[in-house]
Amino acid sequence: VQLQASGGGLVQAGGSLRLSCKASGFMFSINTMSWYRQALGQQRELVATITSAGTTSYANSTKGRFTISRDNTRRMVYLQMNSLKPEDTAVYYCTPPNLRGTFYWGQGTLVTVSS
Known about the structure:
Largest sheet: 6 strands, mixed
Structural class: mainly beta
Strand order of the largest sheet: 2-10-9-4-5-6
Number of strands: 10
Order of helices and strands: EEEEEEEEEE
Helix content: under 10%
Number of helices: 0
């Protein structure tokens, strides 16, 4: 399983970023995909999830600001992040949660939101 996240960077509060994740090594189209994030010194937390059918769910902290989507043909999952806040600063990871009974993580992409 390989997961390559990209699109992070430095943005001012109130700005937007779009994260992308290229997945390989498993049956992408039939698996749920999630974005997680981990801020410095904190535990990794769930940000958003999209099922194989396209049903989405979000953490309360990101609901209404973030949008998760997927392109099964390209084996890509995206996270559109709007109205960013300094507390959104973290390394963001994509993963097929609990695939084969475990979690796979790529290198993540760093998002830094300045105030």
